[in-house]
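User: Sequence recovery, please. Input:
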């Protein structure tokens, strides 16, 4: 069973790593071959691997067929459907799940069955289960894609959403009916959520108690999540194996206790208890909305309780393997979830140490050792997924786990149910649970303030990760195993894995994907500069904490030497306050000092310059005030390594561009240009571009943004001078790591590097990459030939080129086609 599971799951993992899905007919030969060779013992692991890959391919292909047809993007559609889940309210705006039954004018095959919609300034309150007639505008799933950041597109895919969109203001919007929804589980959950919000409106743990009772986590603040991460207790607010198992165990125990005291009934107490445990776990999972973690927990509990009902003694290893196999069979995409591997690893580790090192020690000592060993044993996974792990997790969990499990969760569940029948009694029980939770919360906040509460490191390589896992197995092996001391040198590399910083005299530039906004990070050998921080959308969401901070942590950057905010517009300044709270920032520069009142800042002025590790940073603007427009007073920064240069322009417009040309002339020339004002036609004038003449233009714009940025006129002006354009909306984060001894490096698209088949892929992205890995640089030598760059194995995702040479124009035409070779020397 263990080897079958390992092979099948490995096949599913392999499929989920693919950037594009192969045609589903490839599953036919795989199944045929598997059926033929399955009887041959030596080939069985490969056969099960092929079957896992095939099953994952079939389910993924079916899921991708449900996606919104691109031709419907941006069009007004009239749909009928039903509200699912609990709608989330943000002021007057509502976000909710919606199952579509019908789209007017289109066949069923064009319908994405499950979508995620927003209703801005909603005139009514939405109820779970209601049927509505909406006029909507939808798009394919799309989100920001950055190193270290949250993959929203993956989240949508895992939760079954095949499109996103919003409700258009229209007189056609109307409720069709709410028949049958009054007793639905989601309506009950929504009622409980509303009552909890009303009763505990002033409590700081209101969002946490909602998460523990009904699985709704959107009320937990960013600061609270940070405390949970720092103390290693995030798992306590996700209704999954721990909480479902607690309910099942309590139901098993109380049923057996009552049944045994009723005499000698025909049905055995363990069998009845197991059945009640399954029912109790199912009810709690329903309260949590049957989220993915609860579904996995139900499978595990059903397997264990099934063994009790059948009176079979279960082997822990085989039980875990069977549960994992059933989970992946039911949903092959579950292998993408860090929670799956953290949960199974924790259970497997506990089983391993209970049979190995704990032995006959007392219950209290065993509990302490389990928390300590779990914290150490899960550290490699936490570093791999999140680049951090808590050093105080054993102490925090030693207190928090029993308090949450034995006091808060029972009080929350019993109180919520009783509140619907006997409100006074239910509220009294709930208040007790919240009181205990508030005391625990103060304790966790106190722990989180410790200076060395967590360890942050670079993301380890797969080789270092596997070596650390082997070291941990050796470290926790039973006494008597020889050479256990080797575990220490095997584990240490993952903790002290060095970060990949540029060499002295070179830099690394990353234009982050923050939607319609700007945020960039410049790294030298020993310093970090952040230029702009993206927008702030609400108290709970801004691009500083959601994108910039995770990227810096993934790069093992713990402090910012200089933060430059080009100007005070929200899409540039919005995330700065969060960064200031999360990182030590030595200096902040902005064009207008009065725009920031939460710390001391400096005004950026033309002529300022400094050198870090051989890299020159020079502020070219703002110049003297000559315009009322705030955009024209953006800070403009040029970064120069001597061989390569980047120009960051903020939101400057025509007046400032003309002034810069008059002031600096040819000194503006740069290899890379971050296009001003996201590609607005009020910027990137022909005169400015003719002087800068960038080889690569980077556009920080949002996907299908309402302004139409970058404007076609700007794109045309850039193409006219032979500049190649990269847009974060299509590319995700854009990374530049130039080599001083080579021509300007081709920017790396993170969406091309890390994107999977379920991530958005621009129709024309990487079209050169599809041509056997050839690239042509945009600089024409005097003799009319082209630079030709060849990458090993056709890989355009980074690394030094295998070959760099000049080729004639005719050969370039042959390689790229006439449409790729323009008269002015571009390809």
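Assistant: Recovered sequence (827 residues):
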């Amino acid at each position: 069973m263990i080897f079958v599971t390992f092979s099948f799951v490995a096949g599913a993992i392999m499929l989920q790593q693919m950037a594009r899905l192969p045609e589903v007919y490839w599953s036919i030969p795989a199944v045929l071959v598997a059926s033929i060779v399955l009887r041959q013992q030596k080939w069985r692991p490969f056969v099960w691997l092929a079957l896992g890959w095939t099953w994952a391919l079939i389910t993924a292909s079916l899921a991708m067929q449900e996606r919104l047809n691109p031709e419907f993007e941006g069009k007004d559609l009239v749909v009928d459907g039903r509200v699912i889940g609990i709608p989330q309210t943000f002021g007057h705006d509502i976000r909710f799940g919606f199952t579509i039954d019908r789209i007017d004018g289109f066949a069923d095959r064009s319908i994405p069955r499950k979508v995620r919609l927003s209703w801005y300034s909603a005139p009514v309150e939405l109820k779970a289960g209601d049927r509505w007639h909406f006029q909507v505008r939808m798009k394919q799933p799309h989100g920001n894609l950055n190193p270290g950041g949250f993959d929203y597109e993956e989240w949508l895919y895992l939760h079954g959403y095949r499109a996103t969109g919003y409700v258009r203001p229209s007189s056609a919007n109307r409720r069709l009916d709410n028949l049958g929804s009054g007793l639905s589980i989601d309506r009950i959950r929504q009622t409980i959520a509303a009552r909890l919000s009303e009763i505990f409106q002033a409590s700081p743990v209101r969002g946490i108690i909602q998460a523990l009772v009904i699985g709704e986590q959107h009320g937990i603040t960013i600061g609270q999540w940070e405390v949970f991460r720092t103390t290693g207790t995030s798992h306590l607010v996700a209704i999954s194996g721990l909480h479902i198992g607690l309910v099942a165990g309590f139901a098993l125990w109380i049923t057996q206790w009552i049944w045994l005291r009723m005499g000698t009934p025909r049905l055995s107490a363990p069998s009845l208890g197991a059945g009640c445990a399954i029912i109790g776990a199912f009810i709690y999972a329903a309260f949590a909305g049957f989220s993915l973690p609860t579904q996995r927990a139900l499978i595990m509990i059903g397997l264990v309780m099934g063994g009790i009902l059948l009176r079979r003694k279960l082997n822990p290893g085989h039980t875990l393997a069977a549960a994992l196999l059933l989970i992946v069979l039911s949903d092959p995409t579950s292998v993408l979830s860090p929670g799956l591997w953290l949960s199974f690893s924790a259970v497997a580790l506990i089983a391993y140490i209970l049979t190995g090192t704990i032995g006959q020690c007392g219950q209290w000592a065993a509990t302490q050792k389990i928390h300590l060993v779990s914290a150490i044993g899960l550290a490699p996974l936490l570093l791999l997924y999140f680049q951090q792990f808590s050093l105080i997790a054993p102490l925090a969990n030693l207190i928090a786990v029993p308090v949450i499990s034995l006091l808060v969760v029972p009080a929350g569940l019993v109180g919520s149910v009783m509140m619907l029948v006997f409100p006074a009694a239910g509220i009294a029980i709930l208040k007790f649970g919240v009181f205990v939770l508030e005391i625990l919360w103060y304790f966790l906040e106190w722990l989180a303030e410790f200076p060395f509460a967590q360890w942050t490191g670079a993301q380890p390589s797969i080789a270092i990760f596997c070596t650390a896992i082997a070291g941990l197995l050796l470290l926790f092996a039973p006494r008597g195993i020889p050479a256990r001391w080797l575990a220490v040198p095997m584990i240490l590399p993952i903790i002290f894995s060095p970060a990949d910083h540029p060499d002295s005299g070179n830099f690394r530039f990353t234009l982050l994907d923050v939607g319609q906004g700007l945020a960039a990070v410049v790294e030298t050998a020993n310093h970090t500069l952040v230029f702009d921080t993206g927008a702030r959308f609400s108290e709970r969401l801004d691009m500083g904490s959601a994108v910039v901070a995770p990227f810096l942590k993934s790069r093992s950057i713990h402090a910012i030497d200089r933060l430059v905010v080009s100007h005070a517009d929200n899409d540039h300044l919005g995330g700065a306050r969060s960064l200031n709270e999360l990182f030590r920032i030595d200096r902040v520069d902005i064009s207008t000092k009065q725009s920031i009142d939460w710390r001391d800042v400096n005004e950026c002025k033309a002529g300022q310059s400094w050198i870090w590790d051989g890299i020159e940073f020079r502020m070219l603007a703002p110049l003297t005030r000559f315009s009322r427009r705030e955009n024209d007073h953006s800070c403009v920064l040029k970064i120069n390594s001597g061989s390569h240069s980047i120009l960051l322009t903020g939101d400057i417009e025509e007046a400032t561009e003309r002034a810069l040309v008059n002031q600096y002339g040819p000194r503006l020339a740069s290899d890379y240009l971050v296009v001003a004002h996201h590609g607005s036609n009020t910027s990137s004038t022909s005169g400015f571009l003719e002087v800068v003449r960038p080889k690569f233009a980077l556009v920080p714009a949002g996907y299908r943004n309402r302004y139409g940025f970058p404007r076609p006129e700007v794109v045309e002006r850039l193409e006219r001078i032979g500049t190649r354009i990269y847009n974060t909306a299509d590319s995700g984060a854009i990374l530049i790591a130039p080599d001083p001894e080579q021509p300007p490096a081709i920017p790396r698209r993170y969406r091309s590097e890390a994107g999977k088949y379920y991530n958005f892929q621009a129709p024309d992205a990487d079209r050169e990459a599809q041509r056997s890995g050839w690239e042509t640089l945009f600089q024409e030598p005097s003799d009319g030939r082209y630079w030709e760059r060849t990458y090993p194995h056709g890989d355009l995702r980074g690394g030094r080129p295998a070959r760099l040479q000049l080729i004639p124009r005719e050969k370039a035409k042959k390689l790229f086609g006439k449409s790729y070779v323009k008269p002015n020397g571009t390809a």
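The chain is about 40% helix and 15% strand.
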